[in-house]
Amino acid sequence: MTALDLTGLEAGPAQVWGGIRLVPLLRAEPVAGLRLTREAYGHPEGAEVRLAGRARYTSYIPHGFVADWSGEGPGAAYGTTLGDGVPDRMPLHRMAKRRPGDRLRFLPLHLALEGYLALHFGGPSVAWEEWSRTALRDGLSPRVESAYLGADVPQLADALRVFEILPGQCGVLVYAADALGAAFAVPHPDDYRALHATLLQDLFGELIHQYALYGRPVTEFTARLDDRHIRSLGDLRAAARGQERAWREAHDTVLAAELHATPYTFSRVHRMGGFALWRFLPPFQRGGAGRHIGETITDHQGRVAYLKTFRLSENQVRRGHLLRNLAAHDWHLGRCAEALGATPEELTRRIRRAGLSGLLRNPR
Description:
Blueprint (H helix, E strand, L loop, with lengths): L9 E2 L3 E3 L2 E7 L8 E6 L6 E4 L5 E4 L3 E6 L23 E2 L2 E4 L3 E4 L3 H8 L15 H6 L9 E2 L6 H7 L6 E8 L2 E7 L3 H7 L7 E2 L1 H9 L18 H23 L1 H5 L3 E8 L2 E7 L10 E7 L5 E8 L2 H15 L4 H7 L4 H10 L11
Parallel strand pairs: 5-8
Antiparallel strand pairs: 1-3, 2-3, 3-12, 4-7, 5-6, 7-10, 9-10, 11-14, 12-13, 13-18, 15-16, 16-17, 17-18
C-alpha cells in the first residue's frame, strides 16, 4: 500500500469562517462492521507511552479512540483513566491496546507522531569521525517536536461550533488560509457527530496556527446558476448538482491534491478482523507536496474507514529529508552530500539549520 484510497468519501460544499475552511466528507453508506468511540482520560495535560525497552514517549494525550469491529455497536467509556491516577505522576499508556472482545483502544495522532519521532531515532549506525560520541551512544534522544492544541488555533472553535453537520457526514478537512491542516474521517455518521468536537483537542502544526492567526479571510463556496436554461424544479436540481460536482472536482484536484496524490510509506500497527490499523509517513521531498503524517484504518480492500493527519512544518520536513538521506548513505557525510548535489560543508550547515547539530562532533 502506497497511497490513501478515499473511495466512498466525497467532499461536500465548503463552509467558511474567516480564514478557516471546513470541507465535510460524506459517505453514501457507512463502512459496515466498524464503529469508533472516544475514551476520555483523567490527566490530559500530559501522559507517557511505553515503547520498546526503557524508552518513553511523553506528550499531551487528552483521549483515546476505541475501534469496535464486534458488530455489537459503540459503547462509550467516558472518564476512564489509565494508570494509577496519582496527580503527580503521568499515567502510562500504550499506543494501541487490545480490549476484551473485538475492540482496540489507540491514541489518535500519537501513532503518527511517534512514527515521525522514531524516524532513524538510533542516530548514526557507523562511527564516522563527524558524529559525536553522544549521538553514537544515545542517537536522537531526546527528540522533541512542538504542536498547537486545536482550541488554540484562531477561529477553529467558532467554525466547529456554528457549522452545520450534514446528513451522511463522516469526516472533515480543515484548512487555514486554504492550506490543508488536517484530515479526519470515521466509519459512520453517528461516530462523526459524537467526535466532531474532539478536533479542538487534536494537535495542529505550527504553519496552520500561523495561517489562522495572520491569514486573510478566504472566499466562500457559492453556486452560480445560469437561469436561462432552468424551466422546472428538475432543471434547478440538475444545475445545483452540476455545481456540486464542479466544486468537488476543483477541491480534489487543487486544495486536497497532496492528500490524494502523495505516495506514503505505511507501517501496519494492528490487524482488526477484516480491518487494519496503519500509520504513514510522506516521502520527505524538499519542495514537494507531501507534508502530512497520519494514521488510518483500512478495510480488506485497502479503502479508508478512519483517517487522521497532521501537517508538518517546513523544518520538520527538512529534518525528515536529511535523516532519510543520511541513513540511506550509511551516515557518510561525503556520499550523502554528493547524492544531494552539495559539499560536505554545505550538508553540515543544513544539519545545523535543521536543529540536528547535536549529532555533530563539533556542534558549532
